[in-house]
């Protein structure tokens, strides 16, 4: 049974199909426990040996997969997407989870890093034990996270350095199906099929997603993409490159963007905008397989190099038309939304503390991360809905008992009319439980104070429910 602030779990898991009702009930109970003890260990979240043992059995069950755990959430995301209008940004990114284990071979490897020099001055290389996760997060153009649309987990059983591979083979000649980068295409295809409205989706990725095969797949599926490009491809008739063409394009607008320096001080930077639609050719080794495409190139660059931070220099590539400075600014704003998936990953690591988990094998850790992904999305959603739709009814998130508890713990400074309290008011009260000061100069509450406040609210609400049974009404 889910409790109080975790009643959202019922809706989020309604689409799960395990084929065994006992597994569905266990997932509901487990998600309720872990959402109420975010960042704590499994034994602390489960509270007793019976529930802890049941959790371990769930994660070790061969009949349970990360796809089963997330299937209900994917269905709920599709419903939330259908309930919104306008462009939908599908943010893709990869993150790594590192672990320390006596037997790292049971989990796998992610990369090799330089761990310093030995006594003789020779560099020592250290292989990192861990997992990789590639996720697609659907957000509105206002930044509200609607949920995950696709997730792929993998690990490397034997690490092969990219530099070593380049000595033996040209990476551009390797089919995309034989590369790890195929994950970008797989997630694009899955989310496009899940949401069912390709023309509405804009798939956003960083420089790692600058893959020509992805551009062609997006065209085949009738969907759109917006990526930060790092490859200077052949353009026009093949006798020039994209960068050479863009150097001849005059500045078409100037846009002021807020920035922070290394000390966190807020300032303003002016970037010059240049954009053009042109014919882009595939890599030479793949021109027989893929066609040339008409794409829009958008550059945003500061005029001078700042003294206290790196210069802003964005080179974006998209199949969307950019015909005016206003459209260029809107496209830049959409790409800036890509940071939302970085925030989601931060909640997973800093809030849920995934990397502190002690499960010993990759398959069990993957299932745990899938459960934590639901918790992280919920925290992120509450943080952002407080900014995008603070005036809606508080009943959409909080029960009557929870609202009573919040009113008692964080009373309003001024009397309010009955029924006039909105979601924004109660989410601010939750943030105050988590340490938010709510001063006039403070920005809106962030994810950290939200997950701290929700954990306290769950505990206090539970105490208020059992207190009458202990001391009488």
UniProtKB/TrEMBL annotation:
User: One Pfam family name from the record?
Assistant: Tnp_DNA_bind
Tell me which species this is from: Azospirillum palustre
Q: InterPro entries attached here?
A: RNaseH-like_sf (IPR012337), TN5-like_N_sf (IPR038215), Tn5_transposase (IPR054836), Tn5p-like (IPR047768), Transposase_Tn5 (IPR003201), Transposase_Tn5-like_C (IPR014737), Transposase_Tn5-like_N (IPR014735)
Protein's name in the database: IS4 family transposase
Domain (Transposase Tn5 dimerisation) ranges: 375-458
According to the entry, every stretch annotated as the Transposase Tn5-like N-terminal domain falls at 6-64
């Amino acid at each position: 049974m889910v409790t109080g602030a975790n009643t959202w779990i019922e809706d989020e898991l309604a689409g799960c199909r395990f084929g065994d009702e006992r597994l569905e009930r266990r997932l509901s109970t487990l998600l309720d426990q872990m959402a109420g003890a975010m960042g704590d260990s499994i034994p602390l979240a489960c509270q007793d040996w019976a529930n802890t043992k049941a959790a371990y059995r769930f994660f070790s069950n061969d009949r349970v997969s990360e796809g089963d755990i997330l299937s209900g959430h994917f269905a709920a995301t599709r419903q939330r997407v259908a309930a919104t209008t306008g462009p939908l940004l599908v943010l893709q990114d990869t993150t790594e989870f590192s672990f320390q284990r006596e037997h790292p071979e049971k989990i796998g490897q992610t990369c090799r890093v330089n761990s310093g020099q030995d006594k003789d001055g020779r560099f020592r290389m250290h292989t990192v034990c861990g997992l990789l996760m590639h996720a697609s997060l659907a957000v509105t153009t206002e930044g509200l996270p609607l949920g995950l649309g696709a997730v792929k987990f993998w690990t490397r059983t034997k690490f092969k350095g990219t530099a070593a591979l380049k000595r033996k083979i040209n990476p551009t000649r390797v089919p995309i199906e034989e590369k790890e980068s195929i994950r970008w295409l797989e997630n694009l295809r899955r989310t496009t099929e899940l949401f069912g409205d390709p023309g509405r989706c804009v798939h956003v990725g960083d420089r790692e997603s600058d893959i020509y095969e992805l551009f062609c797949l997006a065209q085949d599926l009738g969907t759109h993409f917006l990526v930060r490009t790092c490859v200077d491809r052949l353009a026009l008739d093949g006798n020039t490159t994209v960068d050479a063409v863009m150097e001849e394009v005059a500045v078409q607008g100037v846009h002021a963007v807020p920035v922070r320096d290394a000390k966190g001080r807020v300032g303003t930077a002016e970037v010059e905008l240049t954009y053009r639609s042109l014919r882009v050719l595939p890599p030479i080794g793949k021109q027989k397989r893929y066609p040339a495409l008409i794409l829009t190139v958008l550059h945003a660059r500061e005029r001078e190099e700042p003294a206290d931070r790196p210069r802003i220099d964005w080179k974006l590539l998209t199949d969307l038309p950019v015909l005016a400075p206003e459209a260029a600014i809107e496209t830049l704003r959409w790409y800036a939304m890509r940071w939302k998936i970085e925030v989601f990953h931060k909640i997973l690591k800093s809030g849920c503390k995934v990397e502190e988990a002690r499960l010993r094998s990759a398959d069990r850790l993957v299932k745990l991360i899938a459960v934590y992904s639901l918790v992280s999305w919920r925290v992120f959603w509450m943080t952002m809905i407080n900014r995008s739709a603070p005036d809606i009814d508080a009943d959409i998130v909080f029960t009557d008992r929870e609202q009573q508890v919040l009113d008692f713990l964080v009373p309003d400074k001024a009397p309010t009319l009955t029924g006039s309290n909105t979601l924004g008011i109660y989410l601010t009260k939750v943030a105050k439980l988590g340490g938010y000061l709510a001063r006039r100069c403070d920005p809106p509450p962030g994810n950290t104070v939200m997950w701290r406040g929700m954990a306290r609210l769950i505990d206090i609400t539970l105490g208020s429910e059992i207190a009458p049974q202990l001391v009488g009404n």
